[in-house]
């Protein structure tokens, strides 16, 4: 694919030629690519980061993971970043409208919600309605965060009003509350459940596919990046056959 070719081409360029005097291979210039990415991308991006570094000697990929709304605001305020990858088109538009993204961001994946519960589902949770039962402690993302907006859309579709014990600033905060036993259930993405390798279980529910509940994942090069070529190579890599396979394995639906 074109993305793979771009990455390999960059890798070959970085390798350089041989010194005519000594025959020693020239060292690739050291470069750091800073990627601000939604917390739900943590596991798959870390995997892809290692693969990208291996394909591009001398390159270090530095990640800044967090809530998409906070990351977009950081970019708008001038925080150093070469790539912005959010978990919703709405949060990406914050940066686009401020002129902080080069061209149009590209949507490359989608993600949907599951109810994260303890292994073996001791509370017997099978639906959003079950989260309103007495004795069930639930947590969600804050409404400004994409996973929080998705949760609100799912609640509306199910005609359910949740009273969560907390509203976390990113999806990893919700997942951590369930993993540590501080909550019986939490609304997270399918990919987050899968990333725990069995430390939590996921309960699917029909309203996860309701309008507004499925989130799109856009990515773009940050305006003013000193590594714009490398940033575009990262985007191409994420969208390449190799990147797509990793995303699908993590539970994303790719575009």
Describe the structure.
The structure is a single chain. Helix 1 packs across helix 8 (228-238), helix 2 (42-55) runs antiparallel to helix 9 (241-250) and helix 3 (68-76) packs parallel to helix 4. Residues 1-25 have low confidence and may be disordered. A six-stranded mixed β-sheet has the order 2-1-3-10-4-11. The radius of gyration is 20 Å and the shape is globular. It is α/β, with parallel strands linked by helices. It has nine helices and eleven strands.
Please give a handful of descriptors for the protein shown.
255 residues, alpha/beta, six-stranded mixed β-sheet, five-stranded mixed β-sheet, 37% helix, 21% strand, globular, disordered N terminus
Write a brief caption for the model.
With 255 residues, this protein is an alpha/beta fold. It has helices spanning 2-15, 42-55, 68-76, 89-97, 146-158, 171-179, 190-195, 228-238, 241-250, and strands spanning 31-38, 59-66, 83-85, 106-111, 113-117, 138-141, 166-168, 185-189, 201-203, 215-221, 253-254.
